[in-house]
Amino acid sequence: MNAVTPSRANKTLLWLQAGSCGGCTMSVLEVGAKGFMRELQAFGIDLLWHPSLSEESGSEAIEIFEDVAEGRRPLDILCIEGSIMMGPDGTGLYSRMAGTGKTTLDWVRRLAPRANYCVAVGTCAAFGGIPAAQPFSEDVSGLQYGDGLEGGALGREFRSLSGMPVINISGCAPHPGWIMETLGAIAFDEFAYTDLDKLGRPRFYAKTLAHHGCDRNEYYEFKASAEKLSDLGCMMEHLGCKATQAVGDCNQRAWNGGGSCTHGGFSCIACTSPGFEAANGFLKTPKVAGIPVGLPLDMPKAWFVALAALSKSATPDRVRKNATSDRVTTDPQRGKAGPK
Amino acid sequence: MTRVIAGPFNRVEGDLEVALDIQDGVIARAEVTTTLYRGFEAILAGRPPSDALVIAPRICGICSVSQSIAAATALRNLAGGRAAPNGYLAANLAHAAENIADHLTHFYLFFMPDFARVEYAGRAWFEPTVERFKAVSGHASPEYLPARRRLLEIMGLIAGKWPHSLAFQPGGVTKAIDIGERVRLAGILADTQVFLEQTLFGVSLDDILSMQTEEDLDAFRAKASGDFGAFLDIADDLALRNLGRGPCLLLSYGAYHQAEASLFPAGIAGLGGVTSFDGSRISEDVAFSWFSDTAETPFEAETTPDAHKSGAYSWAKAPRIDGKPMETGAAARLTVAGHPLITALIARDGGTSVRTRVIARLVETAILVHAMQGWLRELRLKEAFSTHFALPDDARAAGLVEAARGALGHWVTLTNGKIERYQIIAPTTWNFSPRDRTGLAGPLEQALEGVETGALGAKSAALQHVIRSFDPCMVCTAH
C-alpha cells in the first residue's frame, strides 16, 4: 500500500500501556478497511513497538525503550494508554513496567520529553479516569492533568519537543476514529495548538456535545422523559444522562457500525470529561427542588426552566406515549394531503 | 541455576512478568507476576449497586461485556430477579460476539506471530508462516481485522458501543431489537461464518462441529486449507501436545445462561471425569500477593494493598477450590460440557497442552456462531427485552459467568443500599495465580516447570507458546 503522505519522512510511534484496561487499543484496532496496522502504514507511521501487536518481547522491547529514552532513536509520537499510577505515596509501585525493575511513572517521565508529540489515548491517560475514583484520587493521575485538573505526572507546563502540550484523546474508550484521525493529522504535520480545546482534546471531535445528533432529540425538545432504562424518552431528567454537558461527536458518527450510548438505550456518563469517575450514582439525575443540577452547557438556568415548562405543556401525545415505552407504539400521523 | 526475568511480556492483554530459575536449559521454577494494581474493588465500595454496571466493565477493554454480565448477574441475584427471556438472548449474542472476537484476536494477533520468530528459520513451514503471521506485517491480520470489525457491529446493534457498554442490566438489555435489526444481526453472523469457513477453517462449520476424535481432526487436516490447519501442522512438528501441561483440574462456571438453562454447564473436570461445582468452596490466599492478610472467602475478603510486603511477588491473589489451583478457559469449558474431541485430546495427552488450548478456542468459535444463529431465531420481537425490579438494601450474592478466558466471578455485599464489599476473581487470576501459603504453585507456574528453553532463556519461543496458550488477560487478573 502506498503511503498517502509520500513527500514526508515516515513518523515513528511508540505505544505504551500504563494503568490501562487495554480498551483504547481494542477500539483502534477497528479503524480502516484493513485494520490499524495497515492504516498506520498508509499514513507513513512506523510502529516502533506496541504491547499488543509487536513481536519484540522482554529484553528486545526494553532495548527499544532505552534507545528512545537515551535519544539514540528519534521518536515522533509517544502514545500512552491508561492512568499513571502515582501511588502508593508517590512511588508509582502500583504499576511497574514488567521486566525493567522501574515503574511506569519513571518510564513515562523519561520517554515523554523525547517525543515530538505526546498523546494521551483515553480518559485515563488524559485525566486519570476510572482508576482515579475514590479512594485512589491521590494515587492516580493523567499525563498532564490530574482528575481535578491539577498538574499530572508530567506537570501542567509540560511541552513535547514540538512545543505542543499532551494531546488528550479523552473517551472511555475513545471512538477508533478519534485515535486514528489524531495520529493521521500528526503524520500530516498539521496538528497545531489551536486544534485542541482548553483541556488538550482534539477539537475535531470535542467542538460539539455528545447530545448533538442524539436520536432522542425530539423527546429532549419536548421534555418527554424516560422513567427507566429501556424507555425511549430523553434520559436527562431522571436517568443521569450528561450528553448535554459532555464534549464529543458521539451521536454524529457510528460506533461499531451504527451505535452510540444513547442509541443503545443508556445514558451518557460524560466519559470525555475530567472527573467523570467521581459521580456516585451514575444512572440517577441529581436534582435540587425537582430541577436537574447539571443543566445543558451554555444554557441559562432560568431559560432552561421556562422552556422546559413550555415544552412539557406542548408535548404531542405521540411523543409522550412513546417516551415511556421500549418501542414506538404510536406512529407519526399522516397529514390529510401528505407532506406539503 | 540462572534466574532470568521475562518482561515486558507482550501480546497478552496487560502487564506480565515471569521470573524463571533455569537449570541446564530447563525451567526449574517459575514465578508469575501481575505488575499492575488499580483498585477496582475499593472503588466500587460505598457506591449504589447500579454503579457497578459503569465501573466493573472498565476493568477490562478486551472482555468488558463479560465483566458487565458478571456484574448484572450478581445484581440480579441480589434481588432474586429474572431477566426478560429476550434479555438473556440479546446479552448472550453480544457476549458470544465478544468471546469469538477475543479467541480470534488471540489466535491471529497474539499467539501465531511467535511461530514467525527467527528461531524457527529453516523449518518447512517457516516462510509461509512469516508471510501470513509475522507481527504487524503479516497478511493474516488485514484479513482478520475487517472480519472482527464486522463481527463487532453486533455491539452497535445490541450494546450501543464496545468496549464499555451500559446495555447489560439485571433485567436484560436496554434496547429492544426490531425486525430490521434482527435481519442485520443475521447478516453479520453470515459474514462471520464465511470468514471462519473460508479463512480460519477451510471447511464448513458443520465439519468442525462434527469432529469427535483425533482421527476426525486428522481427516480434517487432510482436506483443510485454512489457518487452523496450518497451526495443526506446526503443532505436530513442534510437539505442542507435550508442551505446557496444566494442573489437571479444569473449572467452568457455565456460560450463556437463560432463565432455566445454559449453553455450557458448570463443573470441575479432572482426568477421572466431571464433578459438580460448589461456589462456597472457593477461597483466595494472599501469602505471596502484595495485599494484607484477609479472610479467604470472597464474600468476606478485603483487598488492602501492601506494596512493600516481604516475600510477595504479584498483585494477583491465589484462588483455590478445596485448596487446589484450577485451570480455566475454553478447554475447561468444553471438557466440562463433555465435548468429545476436547475430552479425547486431554485424555490422550494426560492433561491440557498448548495445542489443546488453541484447538478448544477455535472449535468454540464454531459452536458459538451456531448457537448465536439459534438465539437470534428464538428472540420474540414483540415481547420485552428487559424486566425491572428493585434491589434490596441488605443482601449478598455472586455473579458467576464465563469470559472468553474462563471463570469470572463477582461477589457483592450490599448494606443500607450501598455496596459494602465487592470482590472479583477473574479467569487469569486462576490461571496465573501466584503460590499459596502451602507453596502450591499456580497453573502457569506449574505448566512452565520442565519447559526446555535451551540457550535462549527468556527469549525461547517455547516459553512464549506456553504463556500465550493461556490467552492471559492481566488487566482482569489483579484489577
From TrEMBL, chain A:
Lineage, uppermost ranks: Bacteria, Pseudomonadati, Pseudomonadota, Alphaproteobacteria, Hyphomicrobiales
Annotated compartments: Cell envelope
Protein name: hydrogenase (acceptor)
Subunit note: Heterodimer of a large and a small subunit.
Cofactor(s) essential for the protein: [3Fe-4S] cluster; [4Fe-4S] cluster
Composition-biased stretches (Basic and acidic residues): 315-324
Keyword terms, alphabetized: 3Fe-4S, 4Fe-4S, Cell membrane, Iron, Iron-sulfur, Membrane, Metal-binding, Oxidoreductase, Signal
Enzyme class: oxidoreductase
Domain Cytochrome-c3 hydrogenase C-terminal: 208-280
One annotated GO molecular function: ferredoxin hydrogenase activity
Ranges where the record places region Disordered: 314-340
Catalytic activity: H2 + A = AH2
Domain NADH:ubiquinone oxidoreductase-like 20kDa subunit: 21-185
Enzyme Commission identifier(s): 1.12.99.6
Superkingdom, taxonomy of origin: Bacteria
Key word Methyltransferase present: no
Family assignment from sequence similarity: Belongs to the [NiFe]/[NiFeSe] hydrogenase small subunit family.
TrEMBL record, chain B:
EC class (word): oxidoreductase
Family that this chain belongs to: Belongs to the [NiFe]/[NiFeSe] hydrogenase large subunit family.
Gene Ontology molecular function, alphabetical: hydrogenase (acceptor) activity
Pfam (any one): NiFeSe_Hases
Stored Gene3D superfamilies: Cytochrome-c3 Hydrogenase, chain B (1.10.645.10)
Cofactors (names): Ni(2+)
Subcellular location per the Swiss-Prot or TrEMBL entry: Cell envelope
Entry EC number(s): 1.12.99.6
PANTHER family assigned: HYDROGENASE EXPRESSION_FORMATION PROTEIN HUPK (PTHR42958:SF4), HYDROGENASE-2 LARGE CHAIN (PTHR42958)
Keyword Metal-binding: yes
Listed name of the protein: Hydrogenase large subunit
Alphabetic keyword roster: Metal-binding, Nickel, Oxidoreductase
Subcellular location, principal: other
